[in-house]
Amino acid sequence: MPYELYYWPTIQGRGEFVRLALEEAGADYVDVARGPDGVPAMMRMLEEAAHPPFAPPFLKDGDLVIGQTAAILLYLGARHGLAPKDPAGGLWTQQIQLTLSDLVAEAHDTHHPVSVNLYYEDQKEEALRRAADFRDSRIPKFLGWFEGILARNLAGDRHLVGASLTYADLSLFQVVEGLSYAFPKAMERALADAPRVTALRHAVAERPRIKAYLRSSRRIPFNEDGIFRRYPELDG
């Protein structure tokens, strides 16, 4: 039985972190909401599941339904060799993933700093202030942390954990891609001080399955409905 991934069909969003793991693993999966009647099926799952996820993405594997991006990746990482087998390594990989989740949330809040129920145009003044701090303070701080982890990983300086690719590497790649779309000027400056992060980004992009995925129609382009949105005024 293929995995069933449930996420919005027109954006990368948080579902893209799961897609990248599934693609790298060569796993058989169905992106349910992109098919006929897929969104209604997704909404029924949210309403009727015995343990309903709060929101997409969620993954169905047989009778098991898993919500929250980090939890899905924890599950897939163990099943598909995308995380260390030892408990300490597995926990460290998940800690990195949760930190990436924090960064993703902060990126989202640059364009929706007041409420997700308001349009960007209704909170633009607040967004300008939030984005300035995010560009000047938060991006360098997060990238500096990842750069330090890569420098201290003696097993392989193009991986965050150990000598092999993990789901955390895939997620850092996706975050760098998204931030480079949303904040190209700020990221050019920040990545100049993060050569190891840059090298990881390029190494992930060249992995055969990821490279094929990025060139395929399965990879939804970044757009202004997702988490990473390009508003030039927010890039300073």
How would you portray this structure in words?
This protein is an alpha+beta fold and 236 residues long. It has 2 domains: 3-79, Glutaredoxin; 87-219, Glutathione S-transferase Yfyf (Class Pi), Chain A, domain 2 (Up-down Bundle), CATH 1.20.1050.10. It is built from 9 helices and 4 strands. It has helices spanning 15-25, 38-48, 69-79, 87-111, 124-152, 167-182, 184-192, 195-205, 208-214; strands at residues 3-6, 29-31, 58-61, 64-67. Strands 2-1-3-4 form a 4-stranded mixed sheet, with helices on both faces. Helix 1 runs parallel beside helix 3 (69-79) and helix 4 runs parallel beside helix 6. The N and C termini lie far apart (48 Å).
Structural class: alpha+beta
Radius of gyration: 18 Å
Question: What is the H/E order?
Answer: EHEHEEHHHHHHH
**Distance N to C terminus:** 48 Å
Annotated CATH architecture of the largest domain: Up-down Bundle
Proportion of strand residues: 5-15%
Task: Please list the strands of the largest sheet in the order they lie side by side.
Answer: 2-1-3-4
What is the makeup of the main sheet? 4 strands, mixed
How many helices? The count is 9
* Low confidence ranges: none
Estimate the global geometry from the Cα principal axes: globular
CATH C-level label of the largest domain? Mainly Alpha
Averaged pLDDT: 97
The tally of beta strands, per DSSP, is 4
As a percent range, the share of helical residues equals: 55-70%
CATH topology of the largest domain: Glutathione S-transferase Yfyf (Class Pi), Chain A, domain 2
Task: Tally the structural domains.
Answer: 2
